[in-house]
Amino acid sequence: MNVNQSAPPVPPFGQPQPVYLGHHQSSYGGQPGSTTAPTSYGAYNGPVPGYQQTPPPGVSRAPPSSGAPPASTAQGPCGQTAYGQFGQGDVQNGPSSTVQMQRLPGYQPFGSAILAPVVSQPAVLQPYGPPPTSAQVTAQLAGMQISGTVAPASPPSGLGYGPPTSLASASGSFPNSGLYGSYPQGQAPPLGQAQGHPGTQPPQRSVPLQASSFTPPASGGPRMPSMTGPLLPGQSFGGLPVSQPNHVSSPAPQALPPGTQMTGPPGPPLPPMHSSQQPGYQLQQNGSFGPTRGPQSNYGSPYPGAAAFGSQPGPPQPLPAKRLDPDAIPSPIQVIEDDRNNRGSEPFVTGVRGQVPPLVTTNFLVKDQGNASPRYIRCTSYNIPCTSDMAKQAQVPLAAVIKPLARLPPEEASPYVVDHGESGPLRCNRCKAYMCPFMQFVEGGRRFQCCFCSCINDVPPQYFQHLDHTGKRVDACDRPELSLGSYEFLATVDYCKNNKFPSPPAFIFMIDVSYNAIRSGLVRLLCEELKSLLDFLPREGGAEESAIRVGFVTYNKVLHFYNVKSSLAQPQMMVVSDVGDMFVPLLDGFLVNVNESQAVITSLLDQIPEMFADTRETETVFAPVIQAGMEALKAAECAGKLFLFHTSLPIAEAPGKLKNRDDRKLINTDKEKTLFQPQTGAYQTLAKECVAQGCCVDLFLFPNQYVDVATLSVVPQLTGGSVYKYACFQVENDQERFLSDLRRDVQKVVGFDAVMRVRTSTGIRAVDFFGAFYMNNTTDVELAGLDGDKTVTVEFKHDDRLNEENGALLQCALLYTSCAGQRRLRIHNLALNCCTQLADLYRNCETDTLINYMAKFAYRGVLSSPVKTVRDTLITQCAQILACYRKNCASPSSAGQLILPECMKLLPVYLNCVLKSDVLQPGAEVTTDDRAYVRQLVTSMDVAETNVFFYPRLLPLTKSPIENTTEPPAVRASEERLSNGDIYLLENGLNLFLWVGASVQQGVVQSLFGVSSFSQITSGLSVLPVLDNLLSKKVQGLIDSLRAQRSRYMKLIVVKQEDKLETLFKHFLVEDKSLSGGASYVDFLCHMHKEIRQLLS
Ligand SMILES: [Zn+2]
User: Fold this and answer.
1) Is pLDDT of 195 > 70?
2) CATH of the domain at 1017
3) Predicted confidence (pLDDT) per residue in 599-616, tens digit
4) What segment(s) does the record annotate as region Disordered (predicted)?
5) 837 alpha carbon to ligand 1 midpoint, in Å?
6) 991: helix, coil or strand?
7) Residue 274: its pLDDT value, please?
């Protein structure tokens, strides 16, 4: 499959040099041929071939691998077409003899196929100009106001508000969901049905708003007693103006003195205008994707809050309508569509400091011109406050979500590999930062000043180059490390353990063969699959075969090791029953080359299901299995990965033995945190040993009941591994999902035995880290393995003053061993702006990244704090962020207005989704294991994954013409948006539902399900029949494409309207009130407004 040139032989490294990642090489002398004039090495910084190509609409760029035969299909086409363009000619044409560069070979096909941007917007949305230049971006004012009223002294008459004193109606509409406060003493947690969403009753079409009569806070009326306190009976969150379209006034601040800010004119409906890049006012597209809503009286009504702006006094207007129109509050769908339309067509060029990239939901290409691609690093803000006081005031977390080994679409070049020969990569003597485009060469090029610590360093003779009249090295654009945001260095032996180049890694498959595993058909399925899957282990360069060796273990209460040496006629089994003191009974013949031992391995995989077919053993061990795998890698002196396939709570007598401690009664108590904590410290100790060995553990769980995921996932979590969970696994139902995940997991490129360090320029430093890794000190993130899906999230704090001129720099250096055993350093650089005005911070934020960070922060918080405290902390922080904006950046206006920064207008809706998630507010049907599982999954998710996970995509299938095969525009995740004459797909990266309305046309039912009526559709169906008609093909194609975009296979569930499965589906309609007590978007927005007002008063 490859594509690229194989790595050149590692040059001899004669000069032993001191330290591993910590010390600078001491001598530069003696480099041969070092000053050869460098020449261009090809097109890396020119247009990448095919760069401008746009894929045909609806066609994914990489074939979906799900359901495909192992790897061959997934890799073949990509290798030939996608990567094929980077052939010989792409590699440098004559580098200096000590600088060799090549494309990083062998990356997997970009599994997340990118769909062509959907352009099916109403015409009014299309005539946007080209994306703004960077200057425009920073000049834009981003104020979005949900204008409101000054809370009236008394509710205007005749407006349909519940009477202020109507305690019953208010409390009924706000069933004190636990979101806004603790459950009042003696009150049961609202897990039940009290929310007006009776599970099996016909759906109520307009629940969220009508139910919550927005009693405006009458003067002297009840207010929230405290920010986090319980809601009193009868209290409601008044204050948010009801009936306001999302009128927005956002002229440039410098252009208008306070008080002259324009409001949207009262009168007839405004044409929908987009304003994210332009000053002006903005209106949410009114129901453009939802069901037709009829004339919106709201739009025609005056703005009661207008007087507050000064420029349009007008007479006080009565509040015109009963409810807050959901179309008038910020819509995720609209924001996503706008960004796609505005930023999806041009490549994102990274040459400018502090640029906010397009959203993760936008399909765009990246051109590296000195900063790392947003595929590698995304920040909560691209403009950092100069002082810690400002940062504290704003409360906006400063964090970067880093995906060091992110896979790229085929159109984008993998990082070049730079070989600086024996001396190794050039670094700053003091802070050890690696050479990068921001280093400043001085004294005619003989020295350079470090951009991170300002230390002046000598340039080694072999690296010397003259400067041009601008002070830039004349070879700057020929060297990746001087011109690109991301590149790799070949590491010298100093960067290797024990000063020895590593051996290629190994994979060990460790299979539970207890009764449950055999009975469910798992063992037979797995063994059958492995026979072919082993041919597709990750490879590098033009290698004919993978360098990775494999080994096999089966286990229940005891472990069975297999000798699969190629010279054997039959595999040999060795049993270790002393699980208390695990050792590896054989070295020779345990880890083998797949090709050499193919016959023996096939024979073994044929025999395993037979050998244990009649087992009655139900008990299993767990820790000793990991121990055994780790010891085997240690004995073989290599890093590697264990693939564990495990079914039950390990109750057999052995280290790491667990007991069933599941207790749902702990939910909403101070002890709830124990459900997320491991029940024994043994696994942390074990994980630490694994990390030291570079032993990454991937765990596939097949539980029929509680298995204590919180404890079993400790080792995968700390070693950079993955956990997959298939509850109540049955081959016939779950085979496709499991095999698809397994194939992807086995084939994916992994960096082993990795250490990551994030350096920063003076003034800020990395203080906190989130993800699947281990840390032994405060700076080095240790990863036994790191794959292209996993992120490490880093939070920064000030330790000094920053200045606007210099900005702030980040450099992420990942040292790792490639699949072929090559030791490399991958470097990502990113320059950010610094600001002295808070408005600049708010204008350059990225809410998706902010939510990613906040979710991880909260999900870690539940390990040590009561869940309620964690929720309250999030709400408070969000309110502080928005209140600071309101106070310092928005023009003066009435307190009754909720004003949100343009870049953060989705913060409330997304934060509400985090607060309602299963970890922070579990529904009755969510198990303790599910919560622990999701908790650890989110920890290493990237921004795109958290975005769709917390706010699922809901796609109408039958609204657009059947011939239109592009992905339909999504609608908001609310029951209100469902029409019973339509069919919808809903996905969140883990789950996939097909919802069928009860009044769907018969023809559609026939085309899609092959049955004649709605009643004949099988509820819970997981596979659609393959039928020879356009609609069927279109839906199948869409499902395939959605699956291809996600890192885990999403199993389909067909849900019929008003069927009992619908409750499950509705859980994902996140704008609605949830059964577990989570607030609707509208209610939460009102609450947030209230919190902000309290902070401001
Ligand atoms: Zn330095």
Assistant:
1) no
2) 3.40.20.10
3) 999 999 999 999 999 999
4) 1-104, 148-328
5) 28
6) strand
7) 37
Mean pLDDT, residues 816-832 = 96
- Could you give the CA distance from residue 808 to residue 823 in angstroms, rounded to a whole number? 29
Kindly give the distance from the C-alpha atom of residue 760 to the centroid of ligand 1, in angstroms, as a whole number: 10
Q: Which of 549, 598, 608 is nearest to 573 (CA)?
A: 608
Quote the DSSP letter at residue 800: S
Residues ≥6 apart with Cβ < 8 Å to 183: 176, 189, 190, 230, 668
Are 964 and 944 in the same domain? no
Do 724 and 575 sit in the same domain of this protein?
yes
CA of 376 to the centre of ligand 1 (A): 23
User: In degrees rounded to 5, what are phi and psi of residue 493?
Assistant: -65, -20
Whether the pLDDT of residue 866 is over 70: the answer is: yes
795 CA distance to ligand 1 middle (Å): 21
Residue 735: pLDDT over 60: yes
The rounded Å distance from CA 784 to ligand 1 centre is 28
Q: Are residues 713 and 627 in the same domain?
A: yes
Q: Say which DSSP state 411 is in.
A: T
751 to each of 820, 987, 1034, how far by Cα in Å? 10, 30, 38
Distance between Cα 437 and ligand 1 center (Å): 13
Q: Which domain-ending residue is among 748, 775, 806?
A: 748
567 and 635 part of one domain: yes
11: CA distance to ligand 1 center in Å?
27
Taking 70 as the threshold, does the pLDDT of residue 239 lie above it?
Answer: no
State the distance between the two ends of the chain, measured CA to CA, in whole angstroms.
64
Residues 906 and 1006 in one domain: no
Q: How far is the CA of 434 from the centre of ligand 1 (A)?
A: 8
Distance 100 CA to ligand 1 centre (A): 25
Tell me the per-residue pLDDT of 802-817, one tens digit each, with 9 for 90 and over: 999 999 999 999 999 9
Question: Which is nearest to 270 in space by CA: 310, 242, 303?
Answer: 303
Question: Is 1038 among the domain residues?
Answer: yes
Query: How many A from CA of 29 to the centre of ligand 1?
Result: 21
CA of 254 to the centre of ligand 1 (A): 38
User: Based on the domain organization, do 986 and 912 belong to the same domain?
Assistant: no
Domain count, the chain: 3
Assign residue 551 the CATH number of its domain.
3.40.50.410
- In the reported structure, the alpha carbon of residue 31 is separated from the centroid of ligand 1 by a whole-number distance in angstroms of 23
What separation in Å is there between the alpha carbon of 761 and the centre of ligand 1? 8
- C-alpha 455 to ligand 1 mean position (Å): 5
CA of 427 to the centre of ligand 1 (A): 8
Give domain status of residue 185, yes or no.
Answer: no
pLDDT digits (tens, 9 = 90+) for 997-1039: 999 999 999 999 999 999 999 999 999 999 999 999 999 999 9
Rounded to the nearest angstrom, the distance between the alpha carbon of 960 and the centre of ligand 1 is 57
pLDDT tens, residue by residue, 904-916: 999 999 999 999 9
Is the pLDDT at 103 greater than 60? The verdict is no
407, 801 in Cβ contact below 8 A? no
**Which CATH number covers residue 880?**
1.20.120.730
For the beta carbon of residue 253, count every other beta carbon within 10 angstroms. Answer: 19
Residue 22 CA to ligand 1 centre (angstroms): 12
Q: For residue 156, what is the DSSP state?
A: P
d(CA 18, ligand 1 centre) in Å:
18
Domain boundary among 720, 748, 776: 748
Structural domain of residue 701, as residue ranges?
504-748
pLDDT digits (tens, 9 = 90+) for 526-548: 999 999 999 999 988 778 889 99
In a domain, 534, yes or no: yes
pLDDT in tens, 281-326: 232 332 222 333 333 333 323 333 322 332 333 334 444 444 678 8
Q: How far is the CA of 497 from the centre of ligand 1 (A)?
A: 25
Ligand 1 center from residue 25 Cα (angstroms): 14
Q: How close is the Cα of 432 to the center of ligand 1, in Å? A: 6
Cα–Cα distances (Å) from 885 to 82, 263, 395, 562, in that order, read 46, 18, 10, 64
Mean of per-residue pLDDT scores for the chain: 77
Q: Are residues 961 and 1060 in the same domain?
A: yes
Range in 174-178, 667-671, 819-823, 852-856 the model is least confident about: 174-178
Distance 770 CA to ligand 1 centre (A): 25
**One domain for residues 744 and 868:** no
User: Do the domain assignments include residue 470?
Assistant: no
Q: 763: CA distance to ligand 1 center in Å?
A: 13
Residue 887: pLDDT band with limits 50, 70, 90: very high
CA of 442 from ligand 1 middle (Å) equals: 15
